[in-house]
Amino acid sequence: MTGGGDGYLKPLPMVTHEDREFWAAAREHRFVLPQCQACGHVWFPPYASCPACLSFDRGWTQASGRGTVWGFTIMRQPYIPSFEPELPYNVVLVELEEGPMVYSNLIDIDNDAIACGLPVEAVFEDATDEITLIKFRPV
Ligand SMILES: [Zn+2]
Fold first, then answer.
1. Of 36, 52, 68, 110, which residue is 20 to 30 A from 98 by alpha carbon distance?
2. Phi and psi (nearest 5°) for 114?
3. How many domains does one find in the chain?
4. Which residues, 6+ apart, have CB-to-CB distance to 26 below 8 Å?
């Protein structure tokens, strides 16, 4: 994680060789997931090799963007100072329709209304010129 330019103060992902294609797609507002070309398994985060069969024959598949809230917490302390203006904010674990779990934030909802099983869909937040984050909102 690293702070970015463009006046964005919160931590940003450090793009690596393993996830470069994921972040490039997000920048184009496409949500893609790694898919094993050997066994078909879909996973996240985008490690280089398939966690099911260990093959390095990795492709990409378009995610539906749909999922459900699997778990969540409400952050009430400024563990990272740049998040302080947003307190209290939520952190959710979304189970994607395709199976993988993704940590993110829910937008367009009161924290009190967040519940496990809530159907959500992905939205794109252009954090900087380089990084677009994937957030979720209720369907
Ligand atoms: Zn595989």
1. 110
2. -75, 135
3. 1
4. 124, 131, 132, 133, 134
42 C-alpha vs ligand 1 centroid, how far in Å?
8
In angstroms, what is the span from residue 53 Cα to ligand 1's centroid?
4
CA of 50 to the centre of ligand 1 (A): 5
**pLDDT (average), residues 84-91:** 95
Q: Is residue 105 part of a domain?
A: yes
Q: How confident is the model at residue 111 (pLDDT cuts 50, 70, 90)?
A: very high
Q: Cα(80)–Cα(87) distance, rounded to whole angstroms? A: 11
| Domain-embedded: residue 57 | yes
Coil, strand or helix: which one is 30? coil
4 lies in some domain: no
pLDDT attached to residue 7: 81
Answer whether residue 5 is part of any domain.
no
